[in-house]
Automatic annotation (TrEMBL):
Locations listed in the record: Cytoplasm
Family: Belongs to the sugar phosphate cyclases superfamily. Dehydroquinate synthase family.
Top-level EC class as recorded in UniProt: lyase
Protein known as: 3-dehydroquinate synthase
InterPro entries per record: Dehydroquinate_synthase (IPR050071), DHQ_synth_AroB (IPR016037), DHQ_synth_fam (IPR030963), DHQS/DOIS_N (IPR030960), DHQS_C (IPR056179)
Residues in 3-dehydroquinate synthase N-terminal domain copies: 56-168
Lineage: Bacteria, Pseudomonadati, Bacteroidota, Bacteroidia, Bacteroidales
Cofactor(s), names only, from the UniProt record: NAD(+); Co(2+)
Pfam family, one: DHQS_C
Source organism per UniProt: Heminiphilus faecis
3-dehydroquinate synthase C-terminal domain span: 170-313
Pathway(s) where this gene product acts: Metabolic intermediate biosynthesis; chorismate biosynthesis; chorismate from D-erythrose 4-phosphate and phosphoenolpyruvate: step 2/7
Length: 353
């Protein structure tokens, strides 16, 4: 595992130490409107090294993980005199770590960047592993690069101001890590009520989840094979997310992944014999925690067209990561459109739509 990941309850001390050790002459901090309001003042009040940092703030929300915001960041770096020795700190959720990571990977062909995730989702998933990018033409993460942050500083202190919806969103990626890692990790998560979680005391559960991802990324950093396991729930989840964005009612990424996992476990049942009682238990947990995603069979062609743009596809067939059982991963599964439509029908039944 090459990327440095720090778990700490004193993030200001960690970033100050990083800046002192790296000797970066100029620091930029990327925030969105919400992290500028809720998180930046906390870190600035405790840090010595960030006093002269230049703050770049973009609009919040995944609809703004786009070329206009990226261009704004490049402009601010250029006008602020950023050089290859400068440091960019991405202080925010996955929208900021993805887009800031891509800005860091591309500005002057690459400057140093550090991710300081402020949502549960970015802490357990987006900030680590080097997938950076932006949405483009209505498709999720359509343009980007693999480039790991020089360091990731993870702290639950940032979660104090996080709406419960965002905690639930991050928990969906933890459930995904549980499903691919195996029964022990999965059982601990599925028997837990995320809404009553005390994150101050959960740094160790978080670390366990991050390490599921890090083990896989270390084995296959550029997603030539087993990294596709981390994409469980995303072929259909990203289709739901793009569909929702296109119809002007965006949903949090983790919700899309939760619903995508239910549909892809349904496909796993239909084609690989994934135990149906396990599917029902998972679907009930997701329905109780996230509610339903509502659509009709008239939306199927649009959803399937979106799935044809999944980055795992290498031909006209749609590529899925499925499971034979919890922890038993099958990558590169292809399913025909009739099976996908059946899975969408069953998903709507399971979600009482
Ligand atoms: N690169 C990867 O491996 C990877 C993995 C998973 C998800 N992602 C991407 O991450 C994005 C989703 O990330 P997200 O769920 O963190 O969304 P987000 O970054 O949009 O944050 C969600 C909301 O919470 C606000 N927020 C952030 N931190 C806060 C805090 N501490 N207090 C109060 N409000 C706060 C944000 O302003 C935003 O409104 C998607 O674009 C997804 O595609 C990438
Ligand atoms: O790190 C990975 O690999 C993942 O697939 C993690 C996903 O949770 C994440 O949403 C990722 O951004 C999806 O990537 P994409 O290649 O399907 O756009
Ligand atoms: Zn994801």
């Amino acid at each position: 595992m090459s990327q440095k990941v720090y778990f700490t309850n004193s993030p200001a001390i960690a970033i100050d130490r990083y800046i002192t050790d790296s000797g970066s002459p100029k620091t930029f901090i990327l925030t969105d409107e919400n992290t500028a309001e809720h998180v930046l003042p906390v870190i600035l009040s405790e840090s010595r090294q960030l006093r002269d940092a230049e703050v770049i703030t973009v609009k919040a929300g995944d609809v703004n993980k786009n070329i206009d915001s990226l261009s704004y960041i490049w402009n601010r770096l250029q006008n602020g005199g950023a050089t290859r020795k400068s440091l960019l700190i991405n202080l925010g959720g996955g929208m900021i770590t993805d887009m800031g990571g891509f800005a860091g990977a591309t500005f002057k062909r690459g400057i140093n960047f550090v991710n300081m995730p402020t949502t549960l989702l970015s802490a357990v998933d987006a900030a680590v592993g080097g997938k950076t990018g932006i949405n483009f033409n209505g498709l999720k993460n359509e343009v980007g690069a693999f480039k790991e942050a020089d360091a990731v500083i993870i702290s639950t202190v940032f979660f104090k101001t996080l709406p419960v919806e965002e905690l639930k969103s991050g928990y969906a990626e933890m459930l995904k890590h549980g499903l691919i890692d195996g029964k022990d990790t999965y059982r601990r998560l599925i028997n837990h009520n995320v809404e009553s979680a005390d994150w101050d005391n959960l740094l160790d559960i978080l670390e366990e989840s991050v390490n599921v991802k890090r083990r896989i990324v270390t084995e296959d950093p550029l997603e030539h094979g087993i990294r596709r396991a981390l994409n469980l729930g995303h072929t259909i989840g990203h289709a739901f997310e793009s569909h929702a964005m296109k119809h002007n009612s965006p949903i949090p990424h983790g919700y899309a992944v939760a619903w995508g996992c239910v549909t892809e476990l349904t496909l796993s049942c239909l084609s690989l014999g994934f135990p149906s009682e396990e599917l029902h238990r998972f679907a009930t947990y997701i329905y109780d925690t996230y509610g339903p995603y509502t659509f009709t069979c008239d939306d199927y062609p649009e959803l399937i067209e979106l799935m044809h743009h999944d980055k795992k596809n290498t031909s006209s067939e749609i590529n899925f990561t499925l499971l034979k059982d919890v922890g038993k991963i099958e990558i590169d599964c292809t399913c025909n459109e009739d099976d996908i439509k059946s899975a969408l029908d069953i998903f709507r039944d399971l979600m009482h739509v």
